[in-house]
Amino acid sequence: MQSLFFKIFLWFCVIVVLVGVSIETSSILANYYETRWQGVLHTIMPMEAEKCARMYETSGKQAVQNYLDDLQRQKSVRFYFFDEDGNPLLDRSAPEVVQKMALNKEGLNRIAQQNLSAVNPRQGIAMRLVPGPSGRKYNLAFQQSPTLIMPVSEAVGTHPYYRLLGIGLFGALLCFLLTRNITKPIVRLRSAASEIAAGRLKTRVAPSVRRRYDEIGALGRDFDLMAEQIEALVAAQRDLLGDVSHELRSPLARLIVALGLLRQASPEEAPEYLSRIGQEADRLDKLIGQLLTLTRIESGVESTQREKFDLTNLVQEVAADGDFEARAHAREVRVVSADACTMSGAPEILRSAIENVVRNAIRHTPAETAVELTLKQTDDPKKPGALLRVRDHGSGVPERLLSDIFVPFHRVEGGAAGNSQGAGLGLAIAERIVRMHNGSIRARNAPDGGLIVEMELPTSWA
After folding, report:
1. What is the rounded distance in angstroms from the CA atom of residue 343 to the CA atom of residue 312?
2. Tens place of pLDDT for every residue, the chain, 462 residues?
3. Terminal alpha carbon distance of the chain
4. CA distance linking residue 350 with residue 457, whole number of Å
5. Domain 304-461, CATH 3.30.565.10 — does that match?
6. CATH topology for 4-158?
7. pTM value?
8. Which fold has domain 197-299?
9. Residue 199 Cα distances to 222, 223, 230, angstroms
10. Angle (deg, nearest 10), helices 215-264 and 160-197
11. Reading across the β-sheet that carries 332-338, which strands appear in turn?
């Protein structure tokens, strides 16, 4: 029963069935005692009383006692035998209530004249006065073993409102259990949500909620997943704010120092300090621009601007622009191979991602070497895609740090992802852009040296 809908449905079905069974059972209990008494009073009592009277006069006391002992074992009742004055005729003592009824000679005679038996239903007692062959009268009494069913059934049959009250209480108990089963975990979810809203991001729902196999359990597990994501995002934003503050502080400090030196410099030294001020201002402008780009991507603003474009042509354009920049440093960028493919997305944003990866490779490939680009279609026709591989011939990255190069402001000093001139945002921006296009990006070291960055992107066949 893993669905809350079916759980509620089945619970109500069970309640209806049980209430119906309770009504029927109460009716059976109400009729049970009366039916049993009527059977005893109208069939067994007259016959057995007359038989015991004849047996007493013809065979004696012991014969009657043996007979009633056998009958007592068969009927699970206690039998007593009196004369018409209420004196016991057997070697057994009668309970006080039975003895009291037997001594009521006038009442027994009056009832006997109506051919009826004296009864006390609450105590389970019946008594029959019959004449023997000699004309002498005898009194046969029996008492059922005390049970809970007799008084309950009598009360239910005599007072129908008790029956309704019992059924109502039983139905209310089942409804309470159902309501508690549904509302208790919801209250715990609400409490956890309030804790999250109050800033306690480590709050999780109770294990008893997560272990449920219905919609509430699924909601609890999703809530914990959401809480973990919120906690991770807040922590990442906090770290990013600290990194941004650190990155802005350095160029600003150099800018302030340059301004102070400029005020004290001679006219011949002024151009040097002005150049330094311009350089630091350019770095600040570039850093702020990258931060704005990262913010737009993470906010999802850029993801709505989608169109179909030629991915092969885009890669070739980026390679051509990168080659133009690389030649100034005795390097080159070339496309080794490029399969024809198209895709849907934001071409200008994706261009920025590929450029960031290519420029990072240009900075770290040695002079007189080339950055190599390869674009290939995947072999799965059910899920078409493209694999773009960018390789440099630098020193690579330590294996343990390969996944960290896509973290904002992370640098690997002396490695392919390290850059004393960059802010450490290029590959982080590339990773988010690729992920925005439902793709993936990863880095690995080439066997013969250098770093390989691979981007997988979903495409459509050209």
Report:
1. 10
2. 456 667 677 777 777 777 777 666 766 766 666 666 666 666 677 888 888 989 988 988 899 888 888 888 877 678 899 998 888 988 888 888 888 888 888 888 888 888 878 877 777 788 888 898 888 999 988 887 554 344 444 444 455 566 667 767 777 787 787 777 778 888 888 888 888 888 888 888 888 888 887 778 888 888 888 888 888 778 767 766 666 676 677 677 778 888 888 888 888 888 887 888 888 788 777 777 767 776 666 666 555 567 889 999 999 999 999 998 889 889 999 999 998 888 988 888 888 889 889 988 998 899 999 999 999 988 777 778 899 999 999 888 888 888 888 877 666 655 444 444 555 677 888 888 888 888 999 999 998 888 999 999 988 644
3. 49
4. 10
5. yes
6. Beta-Lactamase (3.30.450)
7. 0.49
8. Helix Hairpins (1.10.287)
9. 19, 15, 11
10. 20
11. 332-338, 370-377, 385-391, 451-458, 440-445
- Annotated domain spans of the chain: 4-158, 197-299, 304-461
State the Cα–Cα distance between residues 462 and 459, nearest whole angstrom: 9
Q: Would you say 117 and 126 are in contact if contact means Cβ atoms under 8 Å apart?
A: yes
Query: 257: buried, middle or exposed (CB in 10 Å: 19+, 13-18, 0-12)?
Result: middle
